[in-house]
Amino acid sequence: MSESQQSSSQTAKPVTAFSSLALKSELITNLDTMGYQTMTPIQAESLPLILTGQDVIGQAKTGSGKTAAFGLGLLHKLDVKRFRIQSVVLCPTRELADQVAKEIRTLARGIHNIKVLTLCGGVPMGPQIGSLEHGAHIIVGTPGRITDHLSRGRLDLSHVNMLILDEADRMLEMGFQDAVDQILAEMPIERQTLLFSATFPKQIKKMTESIMYSPKRVTVKETHNSDSIEQHFYRLKTNDERMQALQLLILDKQPQSAVVFCNTKRETQQVADELADRGFSALAIHGDLEQRDRDRVLLQFANKSINILVATDVAARGLDIDSLDAVFNYHLAFDAEVHTHRVGRTGRAGCKGSAYTFFNEHGYITELIAESLGREITNEELPPLSTLDIFPPAPLMKTIQIDGGKKQKLRPGDILGALTNGNDLTGAQIGKIHITDIRAFVAVEQALAKKALRKITSGKIKGRTFRAWLV
């Protein structure tokens, strides 16, 4: 690629109104009803290029609006009357694929009869086979499960005219290169390819050179203001020091929602277990967890039933955990860009955030971080040991699991109605409600959880009695 192909930075400020784009009128109308008039920086930079059919490399962080950028692009290009798979979106995890598919369906509400199919591992193959037999326009999925279907002859990608690789750097980190290559081999060479990545390591550059044609590169800065994040650094040597420092800081700062980043899966589980043993509300998420357990941890963190999520970088990428009080770097990231991405999880949407980083000694990574901050990194004093006498922060909510879901025709309104029937619980005391095919989960204020559980188990929802328990 030439230098001009690698960058799309423009001297003129891009137009930011969605109405200025040559999008299908149904998409513009739907965006207007959703209250979306102005594009985010990544959308303003990339959408005009996508709509002209160019290959695009987009470097942007989670929460930047990149899903809507490629989602609007593929929906504009889609021919609904051709009931063939025309677009494929590859994602590294089931969670991200579910989010992407949901957003594409929302963006497509103004266009009738568009079928978006999600193909991910960690769920039964049977329903996916049935859905594939009925066909689809858009496939969103993980490389492993898509190659499974390809190898069994269930998937025809010969009509694909747009391929999107979302969180491409993470896909490579997770070892999906061979699966991606297998999928690419089943697609037409003449197609539009879009690649979005939070970081841009050498492997990504090599990939773009082999699968893209004269791509335009779009890079946008963080979507949050770095001034809204206070960064603190503590020089520590042993893991015993780190665990005590982590406890002291959590007890002193009392965050309601925080992520602790570790560099290995084993370390992640050890840190979460030790925090839990010492009375903290903490759970781990990493690649060795079963999908069912992973889903449950994420759900409890999202609905405020646990305060602390201990995660690896790979496990935390692409997850909807943007509204954080604090980020703790148990160990320094291996890369300064990864450090920036970790820290960028907090201090968003006009809120203040804090990041606390433990490091062994000053070196190349700390120098790069200092350069990005525009100041030297100095070793700060930890809170006093007397802080250990303070109780750990308690979660605001508790999760109730109900033994019924979409297959039993349960809806959020049904559960909310059952809980608020009478004067002992109000809607304000009930949090997020999440319903899967065979399970439902509802968050209730911690002090009222047992009362809410009794209402569900002793009462009826839609005329039926359901088993339920506290998670």
UniProtKB/TrEMBL annotation:
<comment type="similarity">
    <text>Belongs to the DEAD box helicase family.</text>
</comment>
<dbReference type="GO" id="GO:0042255">
    <property type="term" value="P:ribosome assembly"/>
</dbReference>
<dbReference type="InterPro" id="IPR014001">
    <property type="entry name" value="Helicase_ATP-bd"/>
</dbReference>
<keyword id="KW-0067">ATP-binding</keyword>
<feature type="domain" description="Helicase C-terminal">
    <location>
        <begin position="228"/>
        <end position="390"/>
    </location>
</feature>
<dbReference type="InterPro" id="IPR027417">
    <property type="entry name" value="P-loop_NTPase"/>
</dbReference>
<dbReference type="InterPro" id="IPR012677">
    <property type="entry name" value="Nucleotide-bd_a/b_plait_sf"/>
</dbReference>
<dbReference type="InterPro" id="IPR001650">
    <property type="entry name" value="Helicase_C-like"/>
</dbReference>
<protein>
    <recommendedName>
        <fullName>DEAD-box ATP-dependent RNA helicase RhpA</fullName>
        <ecNumber>3.6.4.13</ecNumber>
    </recommendedName>
</protein>
<dbReference type="Pfam" id="PF00271">
    <property type="entry name" value="Helicase_C"/>
</dbReference>
<keyword id="KW-0963">Cytoplasm</keyword>
<dbReference type="InterPro" id="IPR050079">
    <property type="entry name" value="DEAD_box_RNA_helicase"/>
</dbReference>
<dbReference type="InterPro" id="IPR005580">
    <property type="entry name" value="DbpA/CsdA_RNA-bd_dom"/>
</dbReference>
<dbReference type="InterPro" id="IPR011545">
    <property type="entry name" value="DEAD/DEAH_box_helicase_dom"/>
</dbReference>
<dbReference type="GO" id="GO:0005829">
    <property type="term" value="C:cytosol"/>
</dbReference>
<feature type="short sequence motif" description="Q motif">
    <location>
        <begin position="16"/>
        <end position="44"/>
    </location>
</feature>
<feature type="domain" description="Helicase ATP-binding">
    <location>
        <begin position="47"/>
        <end position="218"/>
    </location>
</feature>
<dbReference type="InterPro" id="IPR014014">
    <property type="entry name" value="RNA_helicase_DEAD_Q_motif"/>
</dbReference>
<dbReference type="Pfam" id="PF00270">
    <property type="entry name" value="DEAD"/>
</dbReference>
<dbReference type="GO" id="GO:0003724">
    <property type="term" value="F:RNA helicase activity"/>
</dbReference>
<dbReference type="GO" id="GO:0009266">
    <property type="term" value="P:response to temperature stimulus"/>
</dbReference>
<dbReference type="InterPro" id="IPR044742">
    <property type="entry name" value="DEAD/DEAH_RhlB"/>
</dbReference>
<dbReference type="InterPro" id="IPR000629">
    <property type="entry name" value="RNA-helicase_DEAD-box_CS"/>
</dbReference>
<dbReference type="GO" id="GO:0003676">
    <property type="term" value="F:nucleic acid binding"/>
</dbReference>
<dbReference type="Pfam" id="PF03880">
    <property type="entry name" value="DbpA"/>
</dbReference>
<keyword id="KW-0547">Nucleotide-binding</keyword>
<keyword id="KW-0378">Hydrolase</keyword>
<dbReference type="GO" id="GO:0005524">
    <property type="term" value="F:ATP binding"/>
</dbReference>
<feature type="domain" description="DEAD-box RNA helicase Q">
    <location>
        <begin position="16"/>
        <end position="44"/>
    </location>
</feature>
<dbReference type="GO" id="GO:0016787">
    <property type="term" value="F:hydrolase activity"/>
</dbReference>
<keyword id="KW-0347">Helicase</keyword>
